[in-house]
Design brief:
14% strand, 2-enoyl-CoA Hydratase, Chain A, domain 1, single chain, alpha/beta
């Protein structure tokens, strides 16, 4: 088993199935940059392994992922140790690499990927689940993107909403900040299968084993055919454009707050603007968004 700090990685079934587990259950698997970099490394490790045919992505604890980590001590420490240059350009380059870039890379992985989702999969949690080829959800799973309501931005950086929800439902969920349950997500085609919570791991593994029996080239051709169809419909071009809009939102709020709305020092001292404070949906500023 590979050694990671924020995730778990291992293989089974004679190495044909790899499993990546987000391992910050005390933070509801909120994502800080070290976790995302480990997830990316694990996906690339699985891709480079000729034995691996299927990759399962899941989260430890009651929730898949609560989104971006906006203020845990370890997230603040990382940002202080890896400061970005000031300005909108530096933020854009960072989000292009770590958020949109990573998610796009996982979406186009040359292995079949399955998201095993329980509990909350909200905001940036969607950027982990949506790039996967299949999503198997527990009955208690909830999906949503409250970023527009809480942060004043158009949505998370991997803007798959119109393709995952449909255009009109995407607008409704983004404008109202609501979540949808697993059964509704299945009805609109975002989730492949909904299973009881205590059967989630078993059912996901069963599906992974069925896929792992396919000829690897056939599985890859299916994946690439569907992905390129979405891209020809404009999905990738739209995502790149929306990331610009997303960063315009950051610049707008930065100007209103003097650029102090999310600095590590202000977070540590509690001097966070109201729009950032509203994103803290759990005590101790540990929640994601």
């Amino acid at each position: 088993m590979a050694s990671y700090k924020w995730i778990l990685y291992g293989t089974q079934d004679e190495g044909t199935i790899a499993k990546i587990t987000l391992n910050r259950p005390e933070r509801r698997n909120a994502q800080h940059e070290p976790l995302l970099r480990e997830v990316n490394d694990a996906f690339l490790k699985a891709e480079a392994d000729p034995n691996v045919r299927v990759v399962i992505l899941t989260g430890a604890g009651p929730s898949f992922s609560s989104g971006h980590d906006l203020g845990s001590p370890e997230a603040i420490e990382w940002r202080e140790q890896h400061p970005r240059k000031p300005g909108a350009e530096a933020r854009y380059r960072h989000e292009l690499e770590v958020f949109l870039g990573f998610s796009r890379r996982w979406r186009d992985l040359t292995k079949i990927t399955i998201a095993q989702v329980q509990g909350y999969c909200v905001a940036a949690g969607l950027m982990l689940a949506w790039p996967c080829d299949l999503i198997i959800a527990a009955e208690d799973a909830k999906f949503g993107d409250p970023v527009p309501v809480r942060l004043g931005l158009p949505g998370v950086e991997y803007f798959g909403h119109p393709w995952e929800f449909g255009a009109r439902k995407a607008k409704e969920l983004l404008l109202l900040g609501d979540t949808i349950d697993a059964k509704k997500a299945e009805q609109i085609g975002m989730v492949n299968k909904v299973v009881p919570v205590d059967k989630l791991e078993e059912e996901t593994l069963a599906i992974a084993r069925r896929v792992a029996k396919l000829d690897t080239s056939a599985a890859l051709w299916v994946k690439q055919a569907v992905n390129v169809t979405q891209d020809m419909q404009g999905m990738w071009n739209a995502m790149q454009t929306v990331l610009w809009i997303h960063n315009l939102g950051h610049a707008h709020h930065g100007e209103l707050t003097g650029g102090k709305q999310a600095s590590s020092a202000n977070m540590r001292e509690g001097k966070v603007s109201e729009w950032t404070r509203k994103a803290d949906v759990a005590a101790g500023r540990q929640a994601g968004i």
